[in-house]
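help with these tokens:
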Amino acid sequence: MLVIVTLLFVYPFWWMLVNSLNTNAQVFGQPRLLPQGWKFENYVEIFQKQPFALHYFNTILVAVIGTLGNVFISALSGYGFSRIHFPGRNALFILLLTALMMPIEVIIIPLFYEMKSFNLTDSLIPLMLIPIFCSQGAISAFMFRQFFVTVPKELEEAARLDGCSRHQTFFRIVLPLLKPTTATLVIL
């Protein structure tokens, strides 16, 4: 049964690969499990007609900057909410939690008009900023806060006794405690 289910999922990908190596007439002709002509020029032709390399670069750029920005800003805000006592901290944290309840469908039109007012509608910048500062950033900040609450305060007190500022404590003592799996869970 598992083999049958696997074939059901693999067959469309196999069909796509086979047809990518056929000519147009062969694609719309008699179906076959192997390509007839093995026309590798199709891949060269598609990259000449469409700038897929630019599309891949843009995707990687948006994903990397959005992810790194999300982790950096969320880690800083999560640390601030867990360790720094300031007036209005609880009210700001409740505001952050309300952002978790706001679906993107509710704010997508106001976000568009906001990006339009900044003249960013035809750029990649909104695709990088929205994951950082919208609900994805809010849930990441919440998760980081929950992690930083579990870090022993003695580590920070020892760093402060050694003369570290709050920034040095965060970057040298607290941030290295994050494991790659923790950051991965926060991003997901």
Q: What stands out?
A: The chain has a mean pLDDT of 86. Residues 99 and 135 are 6 Å apart (CA to CA). Residues 52-83 form the longest helix (32 residues). The chain has eleven helices and no strands.
